[in-house]
Every structure is written in structure tokens, then in C-alpha cells.
Protein 1
Amino acid sequence: MLPLVDKPLIQYSIEEAVESGIESILVITGREKSVIANHFDVSFELEQILKEKNKTEMFEMVRGIAEIARISYIRQQLALGLGHAIYQAIDFAENEPFAVLLADDIVDAEKPALAQMIEAYEKYQAPIIATMQVEGEAISRFGVIDAVEVEENIFKINDMVEKPAFEDAPSDLAIIGRYILTPDIFDAIRRTKKGAGGEIQITDAMRLMLSEGKDFYALKLEGKRHDAGDKLGFLIATVEFALQREDLGGEFREYLKSLNLNDDA
Ligand code: G1P
């Protein structure tokens, strides 16, 4: 719920999903469930006050949040890892392909990241995961794929490993928090043992399916990915998003200039 400029982080992913054509959303949370649900709910009192005060723009904004999509919520009772979190969607997915968006990965792109992935899914009819190149030791903070490029920016995956040591990383292609998965993943998650960090990892479940002959592809996204789950990443995303805003960008740029950041002082 941390606001990036003036919207909670999770809203960026929800808007990305909606703009990509997704109509039903399941939010899988830890403890903050009710705060998130309240944010996306209709706020009768607030709407009433805004209406009475003729604050049309604000009214539309608040209404817009409530009308964004059909959103349901489920709580991951135990923090057993990303694979376990995704397993909570087993009933929701109703045996159909579905998308997973990790809300602290923000992709700033002209065409929404998920829309890019849906296009690749439609072409390859197989699970698609998002990837980007990561230089140096930072690669060990990610899942990493071993893959061959089959067309520009699309890779067929041979293997993948969750948070390898730098020396063991099979490539510089990191997994980022967007996946289109097929419902057979649930059975694989059930059969996946605890991995990195003692958690049930989605990377390991996908790896298990790969070893059983299932095809997986990766798409190098167009756009810039921000890690808003990291303090520095969050600050960078805040500055970049604020600079892009029509209502704030100009004054904010002037302010940043006034700090004379190039000076040694
Ligand atoms: C998760 C995934 C990892 C991926 C990363 C992207 O890790 O397990 O494979 O590279 O998201 O942000 P987390 O950052 O949740 O530890």
C-alpha cells in the first residue's frame, strides 16, 4: 500500500492488468488484506462529501478506483514462499491460464508489460515469463534462466534456477515479476520441495515442469523495470514517475535542479 507518488504500489499492477484486458483479479496478500480491499472498495462517505462539495475530478478518481475490475482477495496464511502464494489461486484460476504480477515489480512501459506477454502467449501457446538483462553480481537476487533466443526478445527456456550464486548463474537473464502460467502449475507446486530461503519457489515448480517436457518461453519486456520493493529502487521509481507527471513534473524538475546535484558541495 506504499504510495508511489500518489497511488499505492499495488494499484499500478492492477491498472496494468486491467489495461491488458484482464477482468478478474485475485489479490493474494499477507496481513494488509483489509486495507487493500478498502482502498479498492466504493467509499460511500467520501463520495458523498466530494459530491456535495462539487469536487468532480476527485469524485471521478475515487469512483474509478472502485470500478477498476472485479477484485477478490485471499490471504496467504503462512509465508511459505511465492510458489505457495500462487497456489492460493487454484480455485480462482478455474483450470484456465492466468497471469501473475508481483506488485513490487513496476514496469514503466508504453505498452503494458502484461499486454506484451499476452501477445507472446497467444503466439506460443505456452507459459511466458518476463525477463531482463541484469549486469554483474545483482543477478543472484533473481531467478535466472538458461535460454536460447528464438525470435527478437523471445527465448525458449532450457532451465532456470532461483537466486543462484553469481558464479553459478546460467546467464544474465533475470526473471522479473510477470508470468503467464497454465493450470498444470498447481500440481507442480504441490510436488515442489522447499528451495532457496527455505521457501516453496515458483521457479522450482516451473523447473520441475521443464524437466517433464513442458515448454516455457521468456519475453524480454520493452520498458523500464523498477524494484519498488527495494528502498533505493522505490526512491528511483518515485522520482521518475513524478518527473513524468503533467501536473507535477515541471515544478519537481525545477526543484531537483535547484539542488545543484552536480556540485561537489
Ligand atoms: C521473486 C522470484 C524471482 C524473481 C523476482 C523478481 O523473488 O522468486 O525468481 O526474479 O521475484 O522480482 P523475490 O524478489 O520475491 O524474492
Protein 2
Amino acid sequence: MPTYIVLLGPPGVGKGTQAKILAETASLPHISSGDLFRENIKNETELGKLAQSYMNKGELVPDDVTIGMIRARLSQPDCVNGALLDGFPRTSVQADALEKLLAEFGGSVNHVPYITAAEPVLVERLGGRWTCRANGHVFHEKHNPPKQAGACDLDGSELYQRDDDKSETVHRRIQVYFGQTAPLIEYYRQRGLLTEINGAQAIEKVTADLLAVIKK
Ligand code: AMP
């Protein structure tokens, strides 16, 4: 049976950082809807053009487009044993679609670690975040600085600030999260899949808590 993990939490809580570590440890592909959109933007695809108009405003990309993209990704051969989903689902419609989709693959969502942190922590983390161009590795100017300013420790590529990490958009993204994504906490809690994890701890401690959840 494939294993599917949905990593839930507000923007800036450290989902991306943790997802990369966790996926490697669990030998599952890391599927980030945000990264897939950014890849499409970089490659100037039609999907990328459409997604960018929503992302720049901090709004969600429409469900049908997002679900179609995730369906295609989960159908790739590297997902036969499951996947770690980061940033998807983000609405109840997407969560329902995911349930149906995974049933087609003979699986279902197995774990939903929900990483939490207070809003001021999120704002501070997003504001100081730097992302690597080549692979989306993330750093924080204060909490997780790169060894050499402006360059990724892991692949040497340039670090940049995402357009949607600028302050006006950050506030809208957090608002959108509480309005549209937070209801998924109850959705997964009712299914007995949710485990809450304190995201305000050190990166290593959050990783340890996450590993304990997925080994259950
Ligand atoms: P992220 O990298 O997860 O912070 O996502 C960046 C942006 O991509 C979000 O603010 C949305 O505009 C868009 N996005 C990512 N995932 C989804 C999703 N599941 N549904 C709709 N929009 C999404």
C-alpha cells in the first residue's frame, strides 16, 4: 500500500524546510504545489502565467487547475509508493478531490502532521526568508542563515526573496490560510489523521516530532 502524507500548516511555519528533510528520510517524493507553480512560471507555460496572477496577490490558484496539476504529478512513476504533499490540499474541494484520487491509486491519506505557530512568528519568518533559485531550498536571514550571504549552502545557486514574501502579500496569504485552509484541520481531525506539532521550536526538534508521527 502506498503511503501518503499531507503536511498542513500556515505559510511560513517551515513546511517546505521540513518536507524536504522528511521526504528524504521516508524515501518519498516531495510534492509541493507552490514549487510546481513556480517551475511553470520559470518555464513560462500557460499554467504558469495563470498561476502567477493569483500568486502575486496572495490568492489561491483555482481548484480545478491545481487539482489537475497534482493529479498529473501523482500519476508519475516515482509516486508508486506514495508521496509527501506540501501545500496541497488547501481547500475542502481539494481535500475531497485528493481522497478520490488516492482511492484510484489504491491508497488514502495516512498521516497529517499539522505544524503550528503564532501569526507574528509567521510574519517574521516569511519576511526574512530567502529561497534558492535552483531547487527552492529555504534559508532565514536570522534563524537559518546561509554560510555565504546570497548563495545556497546545498547547491551554490543564488538566493532570492519570493515576490509573495513581501509584506503586503504575506498578510493576505495568512488571511487566505485562516479563511480557506484552516477548515482542513477539522476535516483531518475528524478522520483521526491529524497530529499537531509545535512549529515554533528549533528546526531539528520539529523534524524529530514529525518523524515520530510518520513512524506510527
Ligand atoms: P507556497 O509555496 O505553498 O507558499 O504557495 C505559493 C502560492 O502558490 C500560494 O500563495 C498560492 O497562490 C499558490 N498555491 C500553492 N498551492 C496551492 C493550492 N493547493 N491551491 C491553490 N493555490 C496554491
